[in-house]
Specification:
Length: 795
């Protein structure tokens, strides 16, 4: 059953169901929100995408600006696209992204035959009006997938036949995405233009092929156009001209296939005329399998429902659909900037969305772990056992002008790799898959210990002359500052990275126990326990009643108040007696804007609501903080944060949470928080934030090796009921209904157990206690649980 069954979106033509948005998005919000017009995250751009391919145009559907273009593998294969009708620019009507992969634009031009195209004039002063002035309609449909397919539909709405000349300006410069953004080239080559017309006698419409070959000794790049339509085609002076003879009300279509040649290989467009595609293609089947495996949500609150539906649609659209087996479900980080392989983003998104489907998690593990480092290469920040941060394949990376061909400069990814491997086992019960990763997991654990400092913490410091200074998720150059605004030099031990290593070791220890490697499990649990003790002793700031963002190069606290301790709650590294202070501080006025938790306190001298990591609000880390608040029993705090994020989702186009938004306070002066310039939308882990928020409120803890699902739900007043169907635990599928009772307790009804043992903790859990640890204990000790369905498996 498809997760779209609850929304039943209308399909246009042969549209890809994974890319089709619901047409039933209610405007009325069940969450309190001041009425404001919706905000476009990139108001000057129209962006469509699929896999490694991204099309960025202006608001008219043309490519004329420095940052615009059609990009494949972060290489610009189309740097200019515009059109003239009879030598003049057509008049613009409208343009819009119809779907993730589909853009349509309308233009018109006067009939070239003049007054004879209109009604018989009553006198010589008549101009024929709209019939003449809007006599020629031009519709441009662009379909993005692998390559680019264009349908240019020219229709004569006038009363007389017309001969129309359509001129297309098609150029390619093969700039790297980073060069396009910077407006400065680091690599250059001549572009050779070659036109070959087909013999007109062989076909009904004119046909031809245009090649733009990049003459660079170290890059095998070219743009090839396959063009069909009209009575005659010709390429001269850098312009492709098409002659059309049009009878009244006759549409004729010029089709243009843009075929990127990448690393010497031709990449055929996925879509054809009118957006048709191969229903039997491997990528099509893979995406449909993914959709059929997704959990289906029915929420009593339309705001939550719409946000969920959009998130699922975005997650489907961001899949690479490339590589063997489950690697097809590897997800790109965000559009339009981050379309390569990003290990950190893939693992975070996969963990956030495991309740939707664990298939993305399995795909990320397979795709990223293939690149686990085996050698020391300082330029790439590579050491044996490190986990890939990012892999880009644009010209700058291919030429070695950046280290991003395979770059390892992120210290959160190793902990995420450990955690992801363990969570895959928890959701699927697939011991063979876990054991297949054993050597790589041990390699990463060994790397962690080799790189621990003398105090047993895990600091980062780049070894590359081109590497990133900051190597946590806050990776901008000025992300980590002292309270007076001074830059913190490397090495830096970030608080959230310590939390990730703790959670990774603890989770993978339990996985090793399931795999009957008890000695290793015991050792890792002991290491995690010792790290937690060290962390709480060294990172705690008694004067702030909060954790430091980091330890600096001297081992002393960096005492800036920032969002990172929210992640520490989520990872369980915070001592119970400190959890309440952290929860309260996260939602204090200087940290909580009303729309979310800021990256940096508004009291810090470097605070800026529009700085990337110095005051903005990121949905993904906020969802992780919400999970952390729930983990330690601060349900009201969690509800307040979840309400903020669902409310702000309504402000943005398509009810989609962008990568990052402004950190302004939610008040009468700021009816919306502001937009971060250049934010990605869609962004994988922002879509994942919606799924994690719902999972957090439902308190789902799968233990597939024991055929067990533990639930510990807490629904807010504004979300009184949720039904979740097709939720996967191992090979089983279960369906549950959650209902908030008048006393505030959330009841659970098992609609279909799928043969699972389903239970909830028996005792009420006090605030500040680790609910995840208590829930896991209840799963292993049935006397501490309330059985909802099935029988507890024996130990």
């Amino acid at each position: 059953m498809s997760p779209w069954s609850s929304t039943n979106p209308a399909r246009i033509g042969n549209a890809d169901p994974a890319n089709t948005r619901s047409s039933k998005k209610p405007e009325a919000a069940a969450l309190a929100l001041r009425d404001v017009n919706r905000c476009s995250v990139r108001p000057t751009d129209l962006i469509t995408h699929r896999g490694y391919a991204v099309l960025v145009t202006d608001t008219r559907g043309w490519i004329r600006g420095e940052k615009e273009g059609f990009f494949f593998h972060q290489t610009r294969y189309l740097s200019h696209f515009s059109m003239k009708i009879e030598g003049a620019d057509p008049k613009f009507i409208s343009a819009n992204t119809v779907d993730h992969h589909f853009l349509t634009a309308y233009h018109f031009a006067p009939s070239p035959v003049g007054r004879s195209a209109g009604p018989t004039p009553e006198d010589d002063s008549s101009t024929g009006g709209e019939i003449i002035q809007k006599g020629i309609e031009i519709q441009v449909n662009a379909f993005v997938g692998d390559g680019l397919h264009l349908d240019i539909i020219v229709t004569n709405h006038a009363l007389a036949p017309a001969a129309v000349s359509v001129s297309l300006n098609l150029q390619a410069d093969f700039a790297d995405l980073n060069e396009a953004h910077a407006g400065k080239r680091q690599q250059n080559g001549q572009v050779e233009r070659i036109w070959r017309a087909a013999d007109k006698r062989e076909v009904d419409d004119a046909r031809g092929e245009l090649a733009l070959d990049y003459k660079h000794s170290d890059l095998q790049l070219a743009t090839q156009f396959r063009v069909e339509g009209g009575d005659a085609l010709n390429d001269a002076d850098g312009t492709l001209a098409c002659a059309l003879s049009l009878r009244p009300h006759e549409p004729r279509i010029i089709t243009v296939d843009l075929i990127p040649v990448f690393e010497g290989k031709r990449i055929e467009p996925f879509y054809g005329r009118d957006g048709t595609f191969d229903e039997a293609a491997r990528a099509t089947k893979a995406r449909r399998r993914w959709l059929e495996g997704c959990a289906i949500l029915s929420a009593d609150n339309p705001v939550v429902q719409v946000a969920w539906d959009q998130a699922v649609s975005d997650l489907a659209s961001l899949q690479l659909l490339d590589g063997p087996n489950d690697e097809s479900y590897m997800i790109i980080a965000g559009v339009p900037n981050y379309t390569g392989l990003f290990g950190r983003d893939a693992f975070v998104t996969s963990l956030q969305t495991a309740a939707l489907t664990p298939a993305t998690l399995r795909g990320s593990l397979q795709a990223v772990s293939r690149w686990n480092a085996t050698a020391t290469e300082d330029y790439f920040d590579s050491e044996p056992g490190k986990v890939l941060h990012q892999r880009q394949r644009g010209p700058l990376a291919q030429l070695g002008l950046t280290p991003y061909l395979h770059y390892y400069g992120d210290h959160s990814t190793p902990g995420l790799f450990l955690l992801s491997a363990a969570m895959d086992l928890a959701h699927t019960g697939d011991l063979d898959a876990f054991r297949s990763l054993k050597d790589k997991l041990l390699g990463t654990l060994a790397w962690l210990e080799r790189n621990a400092d003398k105090d047993g913490f895990y600091p980062y410091q780049t070894r590359s002359k081109m590497g990133l200074k900051n190597q946590s998720w806050k990776d901008s150059g000025d992300a980590v500052l002292y309270p007076d605004g001074r830059m913190v030099k490397d090495p830096i031990a970030m608080s959230d990275i310590q939390g990730l290593v703790y959670a990774g070791k603890q989770a993978v220890a339990l996985a090793f126990a399931v795999a009957d490697d008890n000695d290793r499990s015991t050792q890792l649990l002991a290491e995690a326990k010792a790290l937690k003790q060290r962390f709480n002793a060294r990172f705690w700031m008694p004067e702030e009643n909060y954790f430091a963002i980091a330890l600096g190069p001297d081992g002393e606290q960096v005492k800036s108040v920032a969002s990172d301790p929210g992640a520490c709650l989520a990872y369980g590294i915070v001592d119970d007696d400190k959890a309440a202070a952290v929860a309260d501080r996260l939602l204090a006025d200087d940290m909580f804007s009303g729309w979310g938790i800021r990256t940096l306190s508004s009291r810090h001298p470097a605070f800026n609501p529009f700085a990337y990591h110095l005051g903005s609000v990121w949905p993904s880390p906020n969802s992780i903080s919400a999970y952390g608040l729930m983990r330690y029993g601060f349900v009201d705090h969690m509800h307040r944060l979840a309400e903020a994020l669902f409310s702000v989702s309504q402000i943005f186009d398509l009810d989609r949470l962008p990568e990052v938004f402004g950190g302004h306070t939610r008040d009468a002066r700021h009816p919306h928080p502001g937009l971060y310039p250049g934010a990605c939308s869609p962004q994988a882990w922002s879509a994942g934030a919606v799924i994690l928020l719902v999972q957090t409120m439902l308190g789902l803890t799968p233990l597939a090796p024991r055929s067990t699902l533990m639930v510990d739900p807490a629904l807010p007043e504004w979300l009184p009921e949720i039904t979740l169907r097709n939720f996967r635990v191992g090979a089983s599928r279960t369906s549950l209904k959650f209902h908030r009772e008048p006393n505030g307790r959330t009841a659970v009804e098992v609609i279909d157990s799928g043969g699972l043992y389903i239970a909830r903790p028996a005792a009420s859990i006090k605030r500040g206690a680790d609910r995840v640890a208590i829930t896991l204990a209840a799963a292993l000790q049935p006397t501490h649980a309330i059985r909802l369905s099935g029988n507890a498996p024996s130990l």
